[in-house]
Amino acid sequence: MKKFMAITTCAVCATMAISAASATAFAETTAADLNDGVYSITVESDSKMFKVTDCQLTVKDGKITAAVTLSGTGYGKLFVGTGEQAQAATDADFILFEDVSGKYVYTFEISALDAPIQVAAWSTNKSEWYDRTLTFNSADLPAEALKNGGTSDTSDTSSNVPSDSKDNPDSGVGTFAFTGAVLAGAAVVLSRKRK
After folding, report:
1. Is residue 34 within 8 Å of 147, Cβ to Cβ?
2. Is the pTM of this model over 0.85?
C-alpha cells in the first residue's frame, strides 16, 4: 500500500508538471503580438525526413508569412492542412517551391508561432502526401520583434498585468500550492498506515 501511495503521489505530481509545461509551451504568439519586420527563427518538424534548415518570417499588415527552406529536394509541393485535405484540394491551394541555390523554399502564411501547424508534403518519389507537423519557435525572436519589447508596460496598473496572486493562473503559485497539498495529504495517509 505504501508503494501504491508513493507511486500515485509521484504520478499526480508528474501529471501536474507536464500540464503546466504544456500550457507554457503552447502559448501562441500571433501577428498581433509582433512588430512588422523580417526575422530568422528555427522550426521544429515531427519528421527527420522533413527537416527545416532555415526560416525567414515576414510580419506585415497583421499577417505572418514563413519562407521555409528544406534540407532536401524530395517534396514537390506543400499544403497547409492534412494529406487527406490535400487530396481534395485544387492546384491553386498548393504551395510550390522556389529553387534558391539548389534548395527548395516554400513560402506560406501561418496563423501563429509556438503552435503545431499541420502541413502535407507531396513526395515526388512516392507520389503521395505525407502528414507533417511544424512548430515555429518564437523563442528565437529578438526582443524588438515583440510589441513592447516583450515586456509589460510598467505604467499599466490595470487587471491585465499579471500579479503574483494565488488566483492568477500565470503566476504558478496555485500549482505549487496544489502540489504541496497533494504531498501533505499523501504524507498523512502514509503516517497513519505506519501507526
Report:
1. yes
2. no
